[in-house]
Amino acid sequence: NTASYILKDNVLDALINGTxxxxxxxxxxxxxxxxxxxxxxxxxxxxxSLAYGHYVDQIILIAGDSDFLPAxxxxxxxxxxxxxxxxxxxxxxxxxEHVDSIETYTDKL
Length: 109
What we know:
Order of helices and strands: EHEHEHEHE
Shape: elongated
Helix content: 25-40%
Number of strands: 5
Largest sheet: 3 strands, parallel
């Protein structure tokens, strides 16, 4: 596993359009980006197994990664209701058009 800090999308936009400067960057302007080798493929295989076996009616995927798009399409073709939680990030348009809904779950009651 590898982890790094990357700028949040809205902060990058602000830097590009000049409404924010590099000197004004704060800790909250970054997010942790964790890369886990092979995890996406394993999750995709799990989704396929659940869909083909008709073991579930609904899947909630907590990810913002468009690498899951083939698994999402396959699950929906097999009749599953697919919900995406993009972890408070802006999901790519290609993801949005292939899920049944987008919801953000939080740990706050």
